[in-house]
Prior knowledge:
The chain is of the alpha+beta class. Strands 19, 20, 24, 25, 26, 27, 30, 31, 32 and 33 form a ten-stranded mixed β-sheet that branches. The chain has a six-stranded antiparallel β-sheet with strand order 13-12-15-10-18-21. It has a five-stranded mixed β-sheet with strand order 2-8-7-4-5, with no helix packed on it. The chain contains 15 helices and 46 strands.
Amino acid sequence: MLEIRNIQIDGKAGNRTDHLEPELTFALESDVPGTSLAEASVTACGQTFDCGNDQTGFPLKGLALQPFTEYPLEIRVRDNHGQEAAAAASFRTGRWKLPWKASWITDKDYTFGKKQSPIPMTFRKHFSIQKPIRRAYITATAIGIYELKLNGEKVGNSYFAPGFTSYKKNLQYQFYDVTEQLVGSNTLIAVVAGGWAVGRFTYENKNKITAPRQAFLLELFIEYADGTAERIITDSRWEVTLQGNYRKACLYDGETYDASVDLKAVSWKRADAVRLPFRPEIALENSRVICREILHPVSHFENGDGETIYDFGQNFAGVVELELEGRRGQVVTVRHAEVLDGDKLYTASLRTAKAELRYICKDGKQVYSPRFTYMGFRYIAVQSIDPELLRVRALALSSDYEETGSFSCSDERINRLQSNIRWSGRSNFVDIPTDCPQRDERQGWTGDMAVFANTACYNFDLSRFLEKWLLDMRSEQSRGGGIPTVVPLHGCSTPVVATACWGDSCILVPWAEYLARGSTTLLRQQYPCMKRFLKAVKFWASLSGFGDRRYIWKWLFQFGDWCAPEGYIRDWMAKGKWIATAYYANSCAIMAQIAGILGEKEDAAYYSQLREKICTAFRNILTDGKGNLHEHFQTGYVLPLYFGMEQGENRKAMAANLNRLVAEKDYHLNTGFTGTPYLLFALADNGHVDTAYRVLLQDTCPSWLYCVKMGATTFWEQWNAITPDGKVRDPSMNHYAYGAVGDFLYRRVLGLEPTEGGYRHFRVKPVPGGGLRWAEGFTGTPYGKIQVRWEIQDGVFSVTVNVPVSATCQLVLPSGKEFELRSGVHHINEPFEKE
């Protein structure tokens, strides 16, 4: 039987959209092996579209869409066996281009000092409903971050609305259905804190980056049963106070909440209607921050400082929830940290971030959880309350995406490594891809995401999350083509110039997303940005000299082998020209493929030829022409090997040099951010599988399993964040960059990788080693879930592959024997002698 599954519009089921051409995807399931889609059609708004055999990213063009309207869809399909199926779904529009009638409101009299976050503003509106309601809904946004309550109930389930964007260019709004919350007499409360826009942000300790104070914008649409309608808007008739329950709110420093404050008893004034000094594009929210998981303490104890220490057993990003019995005016303090130093919290790694909560109690039983801050932590220290009167739990926060991948194997240490990868991803996908969730930073470092993107897209469906972030990247690209090292740039004073890896994120990230999801829409949106970036790279490289030197990229600034185990910043940066030139060649290779996919044939030829010139220059200038670098270091060999810049005897020589360098380090990695993701590939794909596994399974510093052995539950910023003698150093304990090793776990250990966008065609080619007896995993694709399991038992290698409908798989066994598989479940065995 043929069935239609997982119908999505713009990457989400039942999605609300403001896109002019909503994009349809769906998957098929069939119990008949070898099934593929032959033809499909979709009917929407009275129009029928012929989708052909396209299941991924079919745009619904020319629809006469209206704001705040639900549109039904009907999909009909026929497969290659003549089976037919139909399914109904719907999508909803947001504001579309409906003009805002509301005014921005604030308290113009409020000022606050430098290097601090503002007191949250509380806005209030009373209104009455006289007639039966058909439906009611709110759209709202803010300069700052806001929370809504209607008649005492929270509106929506997200955190930190309207999200972190390049506010002066792109601002999100949220949609809330409040039909069931309205009564005869209503009170709408909005609390607006400084957040990223106005509050203290970046390690440079800036504030008021977007505006001098918070501002709020809201429209409540009420449609009555009799066909009439009303719109309640923010204007000067709203009230505002600075004496609300939230006395302090800062993303870095934490929150102070006074439960004893009665909003009916505080002093209110008329809000000020204002105009923003800038005009951002206001679009529907793409990916909200939600509570993904609830964690409970695994232990607790009292230390000598009168604090009760709670251990949640896992480092993560989120907030605590306190359920307690207190007395009016009692102040309960909560401090956060990722690690302990003896029986106390280790907070030096937070730098200037205080990461502290102060809760001022009312009488009796009460529940508190912060709404305007979040922390990166595993441990908390609670003061000034008897543990018997307190119940603690934690809410792990992350953006709202689907977790689509899984990997496990016969080595439990590797399984812990995979868990650490996922937790570091979750912890740092909080509205933007941050570098860390705990200290006075939490910025969208582009280099970190560039190297982690492949791994991330195996584990998570980040289509909407990345769409939002890449929009800001395009908005903040410099006129000269440079990409900021952090996106949103927001308060960062670093000049925006073309920089290897960090800048290459404009190509590497959308390419990873395309391979995972198959839609060309993001590639086309990003394509002009990619071209401008590579034009800038070509200019800076040309300043290196004449002839081949024109293709050696070292100017203007390079991070080089950033955070390598040996040396310091100057040593890492000194390797910039080897690393940057290799990344330059790789991005040109990817651009040639992207141009071909988009039908840009001239561009495809241009970038292919440019790549060849760069590879030739690398060989002639940076090596002896025989596969030996003029300066030997692991990343220097890793990148040209992984990026395919050398072939034949030169490639063999490079691989031998890399193998030698690794062996000289007693099979430890010696690579930084830019080389570590590709080290194991460079070894395993060039005849050194055993060395690759020895490095993967190494458990002394520096290595991935050293961190596991030392009790890490996320990835560290530096390999020796905790030294073998247990001394804690200052780096972040929750950086995902080195978690890019997950790409190797999926693509080589499990053997699964796409060879066409969206896994329409994919390869399963396991590379057993390291004594592993089995590995299994899956990843979600637009065509359905791909599942792979292999095992070695009694001299037999067995593999099982589940191929979704419409997809095809090239299975390559360890012997080299190949099979072409179509949809269905396949079991194949062969003798296996190597242990």
